[in-house]
Give the backbone structure.
Amino acid sequence: MRSLYFVVFVLFSIKCVAQSNTFDKLIISYVKGHNSWGDPGIYSNGERFEFSRQKSGDYKIISFLKIEYSAGDDGGTFTKDTTEIFLNEFKIPKKIIDSLYNQLTSTKSNFTPAFIKPFLKTPSKQDILTISRKIGEHDWFEDYHGEDLTERLNPIRQFAKIDSFIVKNRPNPELFSITIDGWDSASILFVQNNDTTVFHMDFLQLLGQPISMKLKSDKSFPWQQYVNLEVNKTLQLILPITSVLRKRADISSLTEDYIKWYLNDFYTLSYR
């Protein structure tokens, strides 16, 4: 899987204030997968949520779909299987939907150690060892046992160099990326009458940041990007606990990325 980056400067004006909005629907979709390249089997999975505004002004989930994409035995026949999940009385207050929209259209300087660290959960020894095997870095631990292994793992469990990791990987809203061969992304659509505002989060980038907004413009590249981790927090309030996107957007999921960085980059540079 390869990512290409390019910089686009977009000049535009958008009217966005922290006020009450009235949307008929909110549609949130998530999909993760890869090009099947003619191979049979499942190559992508996704989910889709549709929230509808009620008479009270609050929103209710009226549709929750799990989606599976697969290629047939010949590798050229494609199937989309959809399963509907029923949720009883899953309602979201209007102020949370309004808050999500306002967060999506504003950049905040919160991709910082001070903001992120309170959400991180201490990884277990087994978590670290499992990830090290997955990325081919288990040789750092295979000759260590008991207290020696604990001592070897402790810096990671204590988030050593976490500030450096966050600063080094801070997203740039002026840098756009294109990913080839795979996808791991969410779209968030606010629908009002016949007007739809579209946002996109690419989770091949850390925590889906920066967030892209499609502008109502005839420009050849009608997108503007924002960085705001408040969006990730609010998605935890909106999506049901069984949602894959809810877990993917959780700021605590950055722990695994940190472990990979520590083993691949910091450990390598420090000890090899």
In short: Helices lie at 94-104, 113-116, 125-134, 146-157, 162-168, 230-238, 244-249, 254-271. The mean pLDDT is 88. The chain has eight helices and eleven strands.
